[in-house]
Structures are given as C-alpha cells and as structure tokens.
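Final report, results section. Input specification for complex C-07:
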Amino acid sequence: MRYSVVTLKQYIKGQCTTEDIMHWLGMLGLNPIIFRENDQVFIEIEVPANRGDLLSAIGIIRAISPYGDIEPLYPDRKIEEESQNMLPVEIEYLDDCAFYAGRIIEQVKVGPSPAWLVDKVSAAGFRSINNVVDITNLVLWEFGQPLHAFDLARINEKIIVRRAGNGEQIVTLDGERRDLSSEVLVISDIEKPVAIAGIMGGLNSEVTDKTTDVFIESAFFNPSRVRRSSKFLGLSTDASLRFEKRADPSLIVPALDRCCRLIKEICGGKISILSSAGRRISGKKTVIVNRKKIDSYLGCNIPVNFVVDTMKKLGFRVDLDNETMKIEISEGRNDIEQDVDIIEEIARYLGYDRIPEEMPVASIAFTQSCSEFFRIDTLKDLFVRFGFTEVVNPGLMDENELDFSSLSAVEIVNPLSRNYAYLRTSLIPGILKNFRDNHNRKIERVSFFEIGKIYYKSDSEPAEVPVACLGSMNGEGFYLFKGRVESILHLIGYRDLSQKLVSSEEGISIEFISSAGFVLAGLILPSEKILKRYGLEKQKIFLVEINLKEFVSRGFPDVNYTPVPKILPLTRDLSLIVADTINWQDVENFIRNKIGFLESVEVFDIYKGENIPEGSTGISVTLVFCNPDGKLTREDADEIVKNLIDELSNNFSISIRK
Amino acid sequence: MGETKLPFDIDSIVKVALGEIREITEVNELEKWRVKYFGRKGIFAMLTTSIPEMEQTLRPVIGARINSAKKQLNEAYEERQAIISSSFKEASRFEMNLTLPGLRSDYGSFHPITLVSRQIVRIFQGLGFGVHTGPEIETDFYNFEALNTPADHPARDMWDTFYLDTEKKFLLRTHTSPVQIRVLEKMPVPLRIIAIGRTFRRDAFDASHSPVFHQVEGLMVGYNITFSNLKAVLSFFLKELFGPEIKVRFLPSYFPFTEPSAEISISCVICKGKGCQTCSSTGWLEILGAGMVHPEVFRKSGLKDNKLTGFAFGAGIDRITMIKYGIDDIRLLFFNDIRFLKQFR
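Structure output:
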C-alpha cells in the first residue's frame, strides 16, 4: 500500500513532519519505505493480513495519531436528497451480504476528471478512467470502503445479490470473459449478472461517456465469500483485498454519501434517497481487560493514564474501575477481540524498545527432547567419521525418478512444475544428481551422505520415514565400501543381518535383511541404464540406503561389558579358493554351524590373479576359537580345521591355496 | 693442512677427529671427513710420507702409532656410517620409498545447515529447552487451524502451501509451528522446547527463495512468562549466535498465533549497521518472528488453564546460515557442489 505524503497530509489535523510519519509507521511495525516518483514523495507500507483498517488514509492517520498530537480530518460527506427514485435491492443469502446500500444520481455528466482529481487518484495508484469512476476510487482510498458505479440504464429492474449459477458467465471490466460457479457471489439484475460482488464490475453495466444516470453501490460482503470468489476466479483487486479483510461496516453509508457529494460537485446531477436491503450491522465490541494483566503480561509497569489516552486516541471508549478496564472498540478494528489484543496495542504505542528485558525464572529441569533429533545427529558424526560429506537435497522429484523404490509415491496436488511434482521415495536419485553435477564440474571422486525423510502412501494417506543414503563415486573399491556399510550397520545395532543378492533394472543390489525378514538396507551398484540417465556411465558408483525407522525409536545399542578373557584364543588362518558363483554368506553360515565353539570367522584378504583360477577368488580367513577354560588343545583345533577343509571341499568345491 | 710442521701428537689428532665425526649426521659430511683423514692427500697420507724424515729409531714406533690411530678412526667411521644409513636400511625393509606423499584418505564434513542447527541447539539446550522435530507431512489442523488460522482467513496468504490431496487435508508443513501444538498436546506444562526441521512453501527457486528450507521454532510456556522474558531470551540467543557486539531490535508484527507479535532484527553483520546490499541499506537484518502465544492456540491444544502464558518464535535456518557465512544465494545450500561443501570442514 502506498501513500503520497502531500495527499495524506491533507487528511491530518495537527502538526507533523514526514519524518514523524515515517518514524511512527516504523514503530507500528509496518516497515515503511520512502521514495520519490514524478516529483512526489511516497511512503510504502506493508499492511498485515488482519489490519484492513490500514488500507485507507483515514485508517492510517487514526493508527499513528496516538504517537503525536494529530487526528484524522474526515472529508465532507454532507448531501441533500433531491429525488425519491430508488432501485429495488434483493439479497439471496444475508450471510453473503448483510447490508447492501446505494443511491441513484440522475443526470450526471460523465467525462474526464479535473486535473486535481487525476493527480489524486494517480498518486493513490489508480489509472484515471472518468470522473465518476475516479471519485469511487478516491473514496476507496480515503475511507477504505470499496464502491462501485453502475450505468443505471443498463440495469434491468432491480439489483439481486446472489450466487452465480454453474455455467453462468460474465465479461468483467478488464475485458476478460469469466466462468462463474456457485462459489461466486454476483450482483445481478433480473436477467444477467452485472458485477462480481466485491471484486470487479461487469462490462455490460460500465459507466461510459453516454451514461446519464448512475447507481453507486456500497455494501458489506462476507469476507470469506469474497475470498473464495477471488480464489475461484484467480482475480484479486483493490476492492477484494479490503472486503477479504472485513471492511468497516460503519463506513458503508458515510463513504456512499461522500462519493455522491463529490459526484454532485464534479459531475452535477440529483442525488436520490437510499436504496438498500439487509440491515446495517454494527462491528462494535467491548473488551474487558484485567488491569493487572497488562503489567504481568508485558513484564513492566505501564501508567494507567498512558493506556487510557492511547485508547481514546484510537477512538475507543474506556470505562475504568479498580480492577478492570472496559473498552469499547471502534468499528473497523477487526483485529481486536480480546484482552491480549488490547495489550498488543498498548505495547505498540509504548514502543517495544521500552519494554525491559528480563530472563524468565523457571525450574532448572530440562524439558524432554524427542528421540529423533539427537540420534540422527549422532549418526551424522558417524558418517563423517567414515569419510562421507553431508548433502541436503530438496526432495521434490519428477515422475521418472521414482524407480528406486517400490513405494507408492505421494503426488503434490499443486506442484511448482512437473520436475517437482512428487515427494521423494528414495534418497538415491538426489545423490546421483549430486554426483552428476560434481562430475560435470570435473570432480571425479566424492563420497556423500544424506539423512532425511522419504514419503509414501500408506492406506492412501501420505506417510514419511527417515532414511540415510551413502554413496561413493570413484572412491575406494567395492569391498572397502561394503565394509564401511557393514561397520555402520553393526554400530547402529544390526548384528545379525543376512544378505541377499537381488538384481533389477536399476542395478544389482545386496539387501541386508533382519532376522524378522525386513530389508533394512540395500547396497546398490546402479545399472548401465541408470548411470546413463545421469551421464555417469564410466563412473564407479556404489550406493546404500538404510531405513532408520527402528533406529530412531531405539537408538544406539547399549554397551554390555563382559570380562576380557584371560586365556589367549586359538586362531587358525585358511586360504581358500572359492568359485565366484558361491554365496559367501552360505559358506560362513556353514562354518559357524559346523564348529560349535567358533568365536568368529573373519575375512582378512581377498585376492584375484596369479595362482587363482579364472572365475574364482582367493579368500583368506581367520578362524578364532572360543576357549574360555583352555580345554581346547592345539591338536583339537588342527583336527577341526582338517575336517572343515574336507567338508568345504565336499559341499562347496572349495580348495585350499597352497 | 699446508706445509706446517707436523704435530706428532697423534693422540690429539685422534681426539679432534673423533669429536668431528660425532657431530656428523649426513652421508656427504661423512665422506668429507673420510677424505680429510684417509684421502690421498689426507692427514694420514701426509703423516706416512713424513716417516722417512724421522729419526731412524723412532720410525717403527711412529709407524705403529699411526696404524693404531688409523684403525681406531676407521672403526669410528664405520660405526658412524652404519648409524647414518640405518634409517634407510630400516625403510628398505618395507620395500617402499617413505618420502613419497601419503595417499589422501577421504574425510567427510557436515552440511552448513547442520553446523548452524547444532549451534542453535547448543544455545537452547543450555537454557533447558528440549529439542523436537515433528512430522513434515502435516494436516490442515496442525499447520493452520490450531494456529488460529482457520480456512478462508486472509493470513493464509502468508504461507503458499503444497497440498497432498484434493480435499486439502494433508499438506507439507509451511513452518515448524505445528510442533508447538503437538508438544502442547502431549507434554506437561510448564515446558520449553525448540523444534528443528524441514519446511516447505510453494516458492520457485531463486537467489533468496527455495520451496524447501529449514526452520527453528521455539516455545516456552509457564505461569509467569512475559513479553519481557521473550525479549531477554531472544536477545541472549541472537548475541550467542552472532556475537555480543550486535544490536537487537524488536518491532510489532503480525502472526495469527501470537499476540502481541514481534519481528526481531539484528544490526547488519556485514556493514555493522551502516547500510549495504545485504540489509537493503536499512542497517538491519530480520531474523526472527515471535510473540506471546495466542490464547486460541492454548485452547486448540486442549489447555484450559487460563493462567498459562508463553512465548513462541521462529526463524529460517537457511537465512541464518547465509548471514553467518556470507552466502548470497540460497540455492548453493541445495546444490551440493563439493567445492562449496568442503569449505565447511
């Protein structure tokens, strides 16, 4: 909202400078900006959503008046009714329009506005149309009450305020043909809509040079009805903005009269008696404030005189007794409904900077935290310790990027564009894009991780679950990456996961499965097709996605101390030659089952090359036997290993590397 | 050595030579020493050539003394040589050149948003605030209705919203404020918490907007919580975060869920309040929205005790991160260019 300073000052009674006005608007929190345009000084302010009263000159001056020795100067609005002509008005639902008023003015001369009026309306930001329309806009600027002028000759019989029928259409003043619906409130005559109520007039009843008689409308339209109409039509105007914020009902007739007076002054004509329907509604409210609460809420002592003076300057009536303050709020201040709203007014006019700072006194007991934040935060420490760099991706995706998960994706009803139409079902596409972008910048080697939510439809309702994704591009080899993944899973408490090799169009993956059968993590080597999609076909890429749902609720595993064994364990190293078609998990499980008192079986070297037949891998393992009482002898261990070698040969065709 | 008269005091020659060799640590120094004593024109060579000039009877004695001195110094030489070359020998055991640069192992780093979130959490933890997160997919009730922003309220225009169903029941939370309601519903009062997390608004990407961003929310509720407390806590927070020298400004603002509401700015950290591009020449940077919790919010959260008061606040973590590190484009936070990320190690 912008105001020309010169014009604004014409409505101020009392002395103040432009600097004063700027300072006061600033104290009100309206973030005023001052600027010069065509040799005029303007002030632009941000009007909060609940302050429709600040969308007019009178309202602004009223609002700053408590700071200085000024008050608003109301423009002349006295009229004489010279005609008894009336236009009948009907209202379909009083809920949509509580009160509708208008006056006919006969024999007006429609034409260009005088220079002073052109200046005034252009300073207020309107394009000058003709004298009648300009006057309605000036009064809107002065009072904040939107008015509309109809060419009376083009209104058939009467005004009906009603919902539009589905399929009905109107061409609005901007020349657009608009489809209406029962959401939209219209002003109509007996055959056709002539305006969209509170938003814009119709071309069919426009005031033109040929108009002789006009009908000026001033009404109270339901704020949410106007808002819905405006949203439905995608059309927002100066008028709709004010109606949405509940225009002051006490100004309906004064603004109408002010407008008629100006029309008579400038365009001539005879003003007739009021045509109206509905009843004049009152926006007057009384708020009772406990006097002690003002001080205890703000945390400082505020003199009662200051409070009373401020309220009076705002046009509120104050009744004081020992404990309470009864305040009658002037109409138009829809934002004030209860005591805390009055307290806000007091704080604003006192100035927030004059309220002292005082730390609260509270019990030293902490308020409990939720489990999620710190668990995930500690996980980030772990990933960084493993050499991964954290990334943050927006997580809105194209439909084509949803193939990394079998989850049913959540679609945004009103997306920004097709590229951002779905919520991510996996963090993998985000990291692949990060690899692509870095690769395009000649960066060959990176290891990234992200922790965030993925989203899916569960019983047709959208749901979310936390996951982590780690990925490496041209980093260390596969076994090192897999080792890091296994270590991470171990550290977050997954000690007995089985692994399953799964191949799909997206790539080959190793699923890590809990004893209860849930896939907790998937390590994927993306397929050629996927790598090509991201322009990464020559890159060595490994990714893993870990479901964190259980971890977030359970946390890191507890540490259970067990005494360190006093007897050194017996260990035996074996170098095996294993065909690549054999699932190592099966071999490991076989060894564990065969040897009852095995503490661990650990692979410490993986080798391909000389002395290893093609299609096989040399795998060196250490077997650690648990031997707490020392009864297991070296000879026993040798015997066990000898038998094991035979069994491995029989069951898996595994041979021993000499 | 020159033509000076030879000192026949072999003992002092040996003494000097042994003193010299003890200081030697490098192979080429050792070689110079060897040449000086054992070289063709070295000291021993000269001593030997002077023997014929000696008295006949002294010759064998002197010859024997020279030989034993030579032997002694030769032992010292070999000993020294062994010491000097031992580190190379040690290294050669590993069959590698230890002087080559080490292979760099990857070291990871945190995203700047994580770094700033952690600083914020640390400050409020010190004040006894619990840390919460809340769901990112919210319902209309928690995101708007319970926050005193009913349907068709003009204030809804303050948050352009992504909806997840045509009935507009489910949406992506436009702020972390719904966590206020969720916490008030289930935790005992008095309480004090912050909520940190991802938020969404239907804004296209540009230098200062992103459809996805991060917020921190705060809520303190009790029986004597005042506006003056709000000012003190938030001034403390901002000075901890940006440094004690900054100025903090409180101005009126509007949010449907607080009354009175405030907008809180700090003196521009770039130009120290003189006015620059970052602060649009105002000298101030708006950081926080805050206010006293609206009674309607307590009511919608099921709290009927009308003696309860409280304050709440919210801030954009992305914006704080940008101001703290002087980042001029919010998209850099989501682009994940390693050349950007690695600066936060």
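Residues 10-92 of chain B form one domain. The mean pLDDT of chain B is 90. This concludes the modelling results for the funded period.
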